[in-house]
Amino acid sequence: MRIGIAQINTTVGDLAGNRARILAAYERLVADGARLVVFPELVVTGYPPRDLLFKRRFVPDNEASLHEIAARTGEVPALVGYVEANPAGAGRSFFNAAAWCHRGTVVATARKCLLPTYDVFDEDRYFEAADAPLVVDWDGRKVGVTICEDIWTDPLVSPRRRYPIDPVAELARRGVDLHVNLSASPWHNGKGRLREALVSTAARTTRCPLVYCNAVGGNDELVFDGRSIVVDAEGATIAGLAAFREDVRIVDLAAPATIDPSHRQEEMRDVHDALVLGLRDYAHKSGFRRALIGLSGGIDSAVTAVIAAQALGPENVIGVSLPSSISSEHSKSDARDLAARLGIAFHTVPIADVVAAAETTVGTLFAGLPRDTTEENIQARARGLLLMAMSNKFGALLLTTGNKSELAVGYCTLYGDMCGGLAVISDLPKVKVYQLAEYMNRDGEIVPRSTIVKPPSAELRPDQKDEDSLPPYPVLDAILQMYVEEGLSSADIVERGYDPDVVRDMVRKVDLNEYKRKQAAPGLKLTPLAFGVGRRIPIVQRYVH
Known about the structure:
alpha/beta
């Protein structure tokens, strides 16, 4: 059996553009000899549509678009993800659905059974759950259709059973000959291996081949990595599609296995490719063609600039050095060197006069008070002011350069270095930033070696080093992993051998700086638990542990 897999990159809400992509993929796959064409979850609307669903015309318009797609289908069926209005007078107003389109019409509709409400997902806010998966009789076969979460019931995902029904077990009971899963599963580090294991287990459970078609592309903070996969009845891989790019191809269930080289690749290549795709799609789908970055000469802005140049092209990236009176010569020269290596535009805009003017303006008010972080932050806010002005004037997306470690403990300045439209590496811990820089230099020095080896510093006071305020980053990142992502308490972390005073101080900083993170630019999700929509901690709370 020849299955056409349309792993395509859609844009949320672009019904006409998505429809054109769907039809182009369908026509290409049919011409290549597909007997069935499969698309990702909610491909008509893009995923996730979120509260667009509550706009009066959105769901009817998506249904009209689906019927235009169905009208263009011929003898080869297409499985197309869309939003179906719930005709019942009770329950949620919509279904997360998939239409079996054949000979110009929608022949049958599958509805998602399991609606995730954890991490970044909130599907129960919008959709009604189906009682059972769809089984279609087609070409002498029984084809079971599930949608994304419907196969995420294995203990590999959660040892605690989340749902009262198991769609995969139901398909096994009904004796299907082929299982098709339409998915929009966002990426985080390590998720590709988990998905392969789940798909393999589901195939062995149903004792039939499984075709898993995943979305690809960036939408807001989420990056979808594609990596669609086809496995046989024993769970062995027949085909593995590309990671982080569109892949439209035929998979013959009877042919030897074909696995794209990017389907399984090293961790830093995944991180790099996710950031490039996430930034490119965030910018382009938002209407930006150019990016602006404040280049400090440090590792974070260097890595962000490399990603921007690769995502948008060096001709579309502007780097700006904004030295203060205390900025080191090596920071200024490292910024200039990086820009030259990348071939991006580079400008130097000194801020000493702006900082002096601000201090003079509040001088009388602050008279008699000691200098502290207030004056240090005037430098960061002067940079934010000027960078935002340049962003406005040049129509360029300002990229913030803070990493997850800094954002976690508030080692960043609100309305200063946090200014911008996208926080590119805000879910990348500092240690991983260094690893990514080394990966970028694998074929030759792009990030200057001096940037990598010098002690990190915010350079807001003379001879300042990050370790004046924070533990060494390997220690900090380990504590943050346990506290933020694993949910351990201070006592739990101390029991693992960490200094009690350091742990309590870092945990306190994480909790105190929730208000900053709520005002931060959206960031690209790279880890299982990113700051943002997937982590909903109250700003005002007094639980200490």
